[in-house]
């Protein structure tokens, strides 16, 4: 799947989804395949086919995107696959009361809704932290190994994000979006270093251009960014996990853009030790 690339029309990044035109599409591209256009505007409720699906611990309903998308993905992946759309009910009930609603990873994301992201809707990293990691690596890696959607430039110190608890992204004329940093992002457990398990590739160990799988950066991160070495023990599993980046949720709606400023409005005062 790492060889499948996605693209959105510009209006999808600047308008509310409900205001998109009927021709707005998500484009999927892959080597040897004609691009697939998936409409961004969902089908009417009465025409939607719901599928039971699972995302980590969540089990619920999602809208199937049809046979064309299923055939495209099945052909490229070489195994049966279907594309489904998250259709949760924002702000209504909870994951138990509403089978369509998915909460962020527990216990840190209790009551906060997310779609089919890994565990949280936002992941923040910094170029400074990547640069520091790369000084320790046999070969430097690009940021796409960590799939962030918010990247801060090298104007901050390496690993400064460990201390951020609340932050605001601001841009002209008066745009701003407020975020809260909930938990550090674990990049697979140390048990994956076992030779018997290294074949279970994660995004971090997969070259995003070639799909080749290796051991890095997990081996290097394990030498200085493990929960044990950092003294992070809020969860028992953290002792054997390695960390790069932080999981966020937004506490206000809005738009962020390349070149916006970040203001740290509150630093972390609670230790991450149990």
Automatic annotation (TrEMBL):
It holds the Pfam family MOSC. Residues 96-265 form the MOSC domain. SUPFAM superfamilies: MOSC N-terminal domain-like. This is MOSC-domain-containing protein. GO terms for molecular function: catalytic activity; molybdenum ion binding; pyridoxal phosphate binding.
């Amino acid at each position: 799947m790492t060889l499948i690339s996605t693209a959105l029309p510009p209006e999808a990044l600047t308008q509310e989804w409900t205001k998109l035109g009927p021709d707005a599409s998500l484009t999927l591209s892959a080597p040897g395949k004609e691009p697939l256009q998936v409409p961004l505007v969902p089908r009417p409720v009465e025409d939607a086919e719901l599928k039971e699906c699972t995302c980590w611990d969540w089990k619920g309903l999602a809208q199937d995107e049809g046979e064309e998308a299923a055939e495209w993905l099945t052909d490229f992946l070489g195994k049966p696959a279907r594309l489904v759309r998250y259709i949760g009910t924002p702000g209504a009930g909870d994951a138990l009361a509403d089978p369509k609603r998915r909460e962020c990873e527990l216990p840190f994301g209790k009551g906060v809704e997310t779609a089919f992201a890994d565990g949280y809707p936002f992941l923040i990293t910094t170029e400074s932290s990547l640069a520091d990691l790369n000084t320790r690596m046999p070969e430097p890696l690009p940021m796409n190994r960590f799939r962030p959607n918010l990247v801060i430039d090298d104007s901050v110190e390496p690993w400064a994000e460990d201390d951020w608890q609340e932050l605001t992204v601001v841009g002209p004329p008066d745009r701003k979006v407020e975020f809260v940093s909930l938990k550090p992002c674990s990049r697979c457990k140390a048990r994956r270093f076992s030779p018997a398990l290294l074949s279970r590739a994660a995004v971090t160990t997969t070259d995003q251009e070639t799909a080749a799988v290796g051991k890095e950066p997990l081996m290097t991160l394990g030498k200085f960014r493990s929960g044990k070495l950092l003294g992070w023990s809020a969860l028992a599993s953290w002792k054997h996990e390695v960390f790069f980046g932080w999981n966020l949720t937004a506490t206000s709606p809005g738009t962020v853009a390349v070149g916006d400023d970040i203001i740290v409005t509150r630093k972390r005062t609670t230790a991450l030790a149990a």
